[in-house]
TrEMBL record, chain A:
This is Fe-S cluster assembly ATPase SufC. Pfam families: ABC_tran (PF00005). Keywords: ATP-binding, Cell membrane, Membrane, Nucleotide-binding. InterPro entries: AAA+_ATPase (IPR003593), ABC_transporter-like_ATP-bd (IPR003439), ABC_transporter-like_CS (IPR017871), FeS-cluster_ATPase_SufC (IPR010230), P-loop_NTPase (IPR027417). Belongs to the ABC transporter superfamily. Ycf16 family. It comes from the Bacteria. SUPFAM superfamilies: P-loop containing nucleoside triphosphate hydrolases. Residues 2-246 form the ABC transporter domain.
From TrEMBL, chain B:
Residues 17-175 form the SUF system FeS cluster assembly SufBD N-terminal domain. This is Fe-S cluster assembly protein SufD. Residues 179-411 form the SUF system FeS cluster assembly SufBD core domain. The gene is sufD. Transmembrane segments: none annotated. The lineage of its organism: Bacteria, Pseudomonadati, Pseudomonadota, Betaproteobacteria, Rhodocyclales. Belongs to the iron-sulfur cluster assembly SufBD family. InterPro entries: Fe-S_cluster_assembly_SufBD, SUF_FeS_clus_asmbl_SufBD_core, SUF_FeS_clus_asmbl_SufBD_sf, SUF_FeS_clus_asmbl_SufD, SufBD_N. Signal peptide: none annotated.
Length: 257, 440
């Protein structure tokens, strides 16, 4: 579903990703782990098409298409969803309005009929129950005055409503207490589907206690330094990131020679 | 202030006064003749303000000065007024329509009014019962003036007269619709509103004209609120894009009264509104809200003045601007807290959204605080659309143009707060920048 080859990305002329390769198949859940500054969030932003992230080399194929040619909204309509690490507050735009506009943008793109108000409400309310969210948040401005946990839940709620093909969760676990973490994890687990891929970007192992990934990758120095099964996450929890970074440096050194 | 300029405009209106004043309303009333002739004398001295006047520093009226608006009034508008009315009428209102500055009874519609409510043409009221109006005009004579308000005092031909006896509350708003139909026409609407003790009314002062005509409107509205009165004034400025619109709204508040002002400015090539209220007794409230939307080369100016003269007054002021193209806006928010006005609570904010590099705004809070036990806050911002918000919306599948519209609309929409009348609210929603949202 997603194939990233030799991806190089700079931000403000500073190289952040330096030759990243990653292949994700439909039905899989991948965890991207790594120390702060390793480029995890950059990868998430590049996939969503954030301005200011400049791809200097490499390519990203999504469902066989060149993803880098698509505007952010086109990516969303093609089924890519990024749950933001820092969800944006939008005063004056009701949550329900954003949800409906988003759902119908995707449906129009697929040539499907737009949902009428009634069907839409039924769908959204079901997802609100799944995310254990107060329905009053539906009529509030997007993320405005939401607690940290409410914002993260709201991201997963949007994901559940939009049913993307490829979901990327950027540090969704950060700042969540254990109850909220469980709710979020349940929401993500409910999304697991043979036609869908999920990428979890996370610093810690704890989200992976609740969502078992098929593959775990460690990002260091802007590339995948190590990949493995779920047991790799546990090893990282025990040993920290230091040894992976040391390995990566050795590899980079060897590559330079 | 004798440094005004004199050009085709000033010469034109002086000649017009000389020709027409015998035919203006109240020409047979000695006191009104005196008010008018004093005013034209003062105007001859003042001329039009120039940018050397502090209050007009950012708004040049040179484009008005260069023009003689000399199209004579003609009662037939060839159906233009009817078409404008069809477009601008608001359901659920009493309606007074003025075409090219004169009352148009055939287009107006007054439903049953409660006893004690006088609503109609000012010219008719002057003819029928001048005694009731004299004190208002004389008080007006002493109000702060500039060349434009003075000119209005000299040349007004009609406007609305609304007089509510104590305790009379109108359920339906009164829609005052001023339609201009002709190129090169100058009109001088004058509205007088007196709300007795505990009386209440909502006014919608609405100015409109065609985009292909260049004309001039010089409007003055004066509102006197009795003890405990409630007056809401909504101004809807939809003048044609080549027009000049200069207006003043002055309110005078008695004890416990509440004055609400909404000012929505969309049209005009050069438009300026002065909105002033004097909290002249204890425990008054004033709320001033405004939205100005400019594009192309429009120039839109709002000067507000909230004068806290007595204790325990509360004022809230929120003005917002959305400017595109090479539009320019001016906001000057003056708040005076006089020595006796202890325990005043005044808040003011002005926020501006610039959608292009060439748009410009001059915003100036002007707080003059002479009392010590007061709460006063103000803030002004000028910014662009938020890149993070735009990206967030786009990342959810909303295209860039729609995302921009949505954010612009969201910025402007809270100026509609407090507008409860359904038809007015719907009209304003349709006029908000960003366009109508897809049904959500």
């Amino acid at each position: 579903m997603l194939e990233i080859r030799n991806l190089h990305v700079t931000v403000d002329d500073k190289p952040i990703l330096r030759g990243l390769d990653l292949t994700v198949m439909a039905g899989e859940v991948h965890a991207i782990m790594g120390p702060n500054g390793s480029g995890k969030s950059t990868l998430a932003h590049v996939l969503a098409g954030r301005e200011g992230y400049v791809v200097t080399a490499g390519e990203i194929l999504y469902l066989g298409k060149n993803l880098l040619e698509l505007a952010p909204e086109e990516r969303a309509r093609e089924g890519i969803f990024l749950a933001f690490q820092y969800p944006v507050e939008i005063p004056g735009v009701a949550n329900i309005y954003l949800l409906k506009a988003a759902v119908n943008a995707v449906r129009r793109h697929r040539g499907e009929q737009e949902l009428d108000a009634m069907d839409f409400l039924v769908l959204v309310k079901e997802k609100f129950r799944l995310m254990d969210m107060d329905e009053s948040l539906l009529y509030r401005a997007v993320n405005e005055g939401f607690s940290g946990g409410e914002k993260k839940r709201n991201e997963i709620l949007q994901m559940a409503v939009l049913e993307p093909r490829l979901a990327i969760l950027d540090e969704t676990d950060s700042g969540l207490d254990i109850d909220a973490l469980k709710v979020v994890a349940n929401g993500v687990e409910a999304m697991r589907d043979p036609d869908r891929a999920i990428i979890l970007v996370t610093h810690y192992q704890r989200l992976l206690d609740h969502i078992r990934p098929d593959r775990v990758h460690v990002l260091a120095q802007g590339r995948i330094a190590l990949s493995g099964g779920p047991e790799l996450a546990q090893e990282l929890e025990r040993r920290g990131y230091g040894w992976v970074e040391a390995e990566a440096q050795k590899m980079a050194g060897a590559g330079a020679q | 202030m004798t440094n005004g300029t004199r050009g085709p405009f000033v010469n034109g209106v002086l000649a017009r006064f000389a020709e027409e004043h015998e035919g203006l309303p109240g020409a047979a009333l000695p006191w009104l003749r005196r008010v008018r002739s004093d005013a034209i004398g003062r105007f001859a001295e003042l001329g039009l303000p120039t940018t050397r006047h502090e209050d007009w520093k950012y708004t040049s009226v040179a484009a008005i000065e260069r023009r003689a608006f000399d199209t004579p009034f003609d009662a037939s508008s060839n159906g233009l007024a009817e078409r404008a009315l069809a477009r601008h009428a608001l359901d659920g209102t009493h309606r007074l329509v003025f075409v090219d500055g004169r009352y148009a009874p055939g287009l107006s519609r007054l439903d049953t009014l409660p006893a004690g409510a006088q609503v109609g043409s000012l010219a008719a009221a002057i003819a029928a019962r001048p005694d009731r109006l004299e004190d208002l005009f004389v008080a007006d004579d002493e109000a702060p003036a500039n060349g434009f308000t003075t000119l209005n005092s000299a040349l007004w031909a009609d406007g609305a007269w609304i007089d509510l006896a104590p305790g009379v509350v109108l359920d339906m708003p009164i829609h005052l619709l001023f339609i201009t139909t002709r190129n090169d026409l100058a009109s001088f609407p004058r509205n007088l509103v007196r709300a007795g003790a505990e009386a209440g009314v909502t006014l919608i002062e609405h100015h409109a004209g065609p985009d292909d005509a260049s004309y001039f409107t010089d409007a003055v509205t004066r509102i006197v609120l009795g003890k405990g009165a409630r007056v809401a004034h909504a101004k809807l400025q939809q003048e044609g894009r080549r027009s000049f619109h200069i207006a003043a709204i002055h309110a005078e508040q008695a004890q416990d009264s509440r004055f609400g002002s909404h000012a929505f400015a969309f049209g005009g090539q050069l438009a300026r509104s002065e909105i002033a209220t004097r909290l002249g007794a204890e425990d008054c409230e004033a709320k001033l809200v405004g939205l100005y939307v400019g594009s192309g080369r429009q120039h839109i100016d709002h000067h507000t003045c909230i004068d806290h003269a007595q204790p325990r007054g509360t004022s809230r002021e929120v003005y917002k601007g959305v400017l595109d193209g090479a539009a320019r806006a001016v906001f000057n928010g003056r708040v005076i807290v006089r020595p006796d006005a202890q325990q005043t609570d005044a808040q003011q904010s002005n926020r501006n959204l610039l959608l292009s590099d060439s748009a410009e705004v001059d915003t100036k809070p002007q707080l003059e605080i002479w009392a010590d036990d007061v709460k006063c806050a103000h803030g002004a911002t000028v910014g662009q659309l938020d890149a993070d918000q735009l990206h967030y919306l786009r990342s959810r599948g909303i295209d860039e143009a729609a995302a921009r519209s949505l954010l612009i609309r969201a910025f402007a929409a809270d100026t509609l707060e407090g507008i409860e009348h359904a038809a007015l609210r719907a009209r304003l929603e349709s006029l908000l920048p960003g366009g109508l949202p897809e049904a959500a």
